[in-house]
Structure prediction request, 933 residues.
Amino acid sequence: MRYLPLTETEREEMRKTIGIKETKELFSDIPKDKSYFSLADLPAALSEPELLDKFNEIGRKNIFPGFLSFLGAGAYQHFIPELVNFLSNKSEFLTPYTPYQPEVSQGSLQGMFEYQTMMAQLTDMDIANSSLYDGGTAAAEGIVLALKKSKKQHILIAGNIHPEYIEIMQTYIKYLDYKMDLVPFDPQSGKLKLAELQGKIDQDTAGFIFQSPNFFGVVEEGKQISAMLHSKNSYSLQIVTEALSLAFLVPPGENDVDLVVGEAQSFGLPLGFGGPYLGFIAAKSEFLRQMPGRFVGQTLDSKGNRGYVLTLSTREQHIKRERATSNICTNEAWCAFRAGIYLATMGKKGLRSIAKTNHLNTAYFVKEVSKLNNVKVKYQKDYYNEVVLEVQNGKTDDFLKKLEAKKILAGIPLHWFYPDQKNTILVNFTEIHRKKDIDQLVQAIGEIK
Amino acid sequence: MKKQLPELMFLKSRDGKEGCSLSAPEIADDLCILAADKLRKDIADFPQLSEVEIVRHYTNLAHLNHSVDAGFYPLGSCTMKYNPKINEKIANQPEWNAHPYSPIHLVQGNLEIMKSLEELLMKITAMAAFTLTPAAGAHGELTGLRVIRDYLTAKGDARKIVLIPDSAHGTNPASSVLCGYQTKEIPSNENGILEVETLKKHLDKDVAALMITNPNTLGIFEKNIVEIARVLHENGSLLYMDGANMNAFMGIAKPGDLGADVIHLNLHKTFATPHGGGGPGSGPVGVGKDLVKFLPVPIITHQGKEYKVRYHNETGSNRIKNFYGNFLVIVRALVYLLELGKENIRQVAEDAVLNANYIRKKLEPYLDLPYKSKSLHEVVFSDKGLTVKTLDVAKRLLDYGIHPFTIYFPLIVHGAMMIEPTETESKETLDQFIDIMIKILDEAKKDPAFVQGAPYSTPVTRLDEVLAAKQLILRWKPAATQTN
Prediction:
């Protein structure tokens, strides 16, 4: 077996050194009647060619390749420059563990420091950590942080946050002594009802978490929301599920948001059927000592040279145990490192350019599709790169099936998340779409009877 | 030539440089529907580099890292085994790269991969069902504990306390607290394991579960485990077995047979997926049959050859992560298990344990072994009798091209040196390591100051962690560039 370098002779030699006859003896602490079970029901070992055949065969059961896709909702298809694959897949970055020995980990550490810097720049916040699992868990960590820091018991949650994120937040705080309250949105605009939010904030409100652009793709009034919360001494928390929007829209920091959490899959990570992705958290510096996850800090070595280490570990589980600020240990370090490579490759100009293209492609679709009378764009104001499309006649499943027959995945039916939304779908446009792709979608929709 | 840190990319940035090649815009700017006050003006100081500069930057960073591919990495409790290259090739194939909300009849292959891994893990562990959604070990702990709490709450017997042995990973108490539990630490005995009598002393009707790592962080199998499970169950409490060290007995024994109600596994440890400098991982959770209905969504089922996905469980969604979990990590783990097959799966554990015991035997004359019980996949020495600190020995190892073992953990061993060689190391590597250790201990006797000054051959010397925590430079800023 190629991953097992010991030869039988060496095993024998080692057993002699240890003073045993059979390796089995080393396992004698395991109850005899519970060990050395029959392996008969496990599959037989496959050779490399057999593995390739096997996975090619499984791969052929996936028939999505070749479809023109407009699926988004928290997982976005963006172009990934080859440089990102080439550099991030170097085994020096892929095969070390957490940089506990900084002297031989400066490559990972400096890369993470640069990533932290770029995420802080993009969110326009003081600090960003070096990764969390994904957007949904980052949102959960974010509200727990706000609750702990404020020492209050009540958190408000926007009703137009990605429904999966809401579920994850509910799971996370289920057994903590906190109260969570949903703030509804206006079905006419897709946006939050600020008057209603105002009425819900009281002395016990730790903060309010909203998503912008929200689940329906609409940009919220971040500045007004933050001001409203700050006037009542509560925190403003923003979720960003489409990280690329940070390069085009007024950033959270400029809107005086206190904590930004979200998903940075858009920064060079493939769709990958949902993971691994990249959770992030960025904040005003007052949150620093209670934040979850790892931080890389700059320091000096004993000769006075610049170097990097993991720092602020006194917040973490391996030091603080039950008093830690989070239980996170293994995170998404490589994804963050790779995002750093992506961001450096795109650069300021490239990132801003594609962030704009995402919006313009969406606007072009809205313009073109408005000429049809079998569908309607539901929220025509303040969208970024996703829109809700109302199907005028018939149900969405039927509508989507007809497009699927033309090898188009036009969107995600919203009844998956909101049972009463029978005739709406969520459609996403990125720089991956060419004008002709959008024309093709519009034409195909127009042909639906 | 000594390797040096490249300048920070922000200092190399110049206006107008391009690192990417983009298509010309097809849609005119005037279609933008957002008002100017919603648009960002600039991203101050964001880098602008050319492709060749980016390649040199990261290539030079790569040269500063130690990795499993570069050399021995016996980091105890982390199972730094070799990461097979065929796993990378298959995981990077485009045919898995579907959107997670693709219609399920278009992604039957992906669902088959997940279901196949779930079923294999069930066979290896004797657990009734698995969820693959947790992103890491600690995330699995949180999931598993929440399942326990849901189960007990549904029975009308909500309890408050989780018992945790003193040798446990820090994630165990941290996860328990995040699940609303109080934790109580219980001592292991002089042999490094939990006594049934000790457990009984701490057991009452408020104990929801015992969370125990097996083999524990001393590398010792909790040999009372079957009796421990029985005593717990008799009390209405559950047994959570942390499977972080499953590499020690994969294919030898099954946690379910030993009485575990909930376990988590670490695909990035036992199942050879790359650690990536600290993640991504994957922490599948397996549960006994009474707990299955409390697992988080999505739940993959199959009728005949057709795979389906359920987004609602009878007990609620219990969702713990977006989408399906770290799918591309799951692909790698499945490739690995299929390559091992029934012919090799047991050999993995046997070689891992043989390697650890070989190191133990060879180093025992030179180092203090505080717990003499049988070692499985790792061995933990203390700093007793050393002329320098554990940290100094670790730093000196760097000069010999070896990544140090885990140091100062578990906490119950003074100056702990926790060595886990894994099965993927050759006898030659082990012998070299042993020789180097003996040499360093000798150096430490003859010239402690020299060892205390190590490392000498790394890109940087010992770093000032106190300064890092004091000055807290966590990002580059134009004003803070003096140190370059």
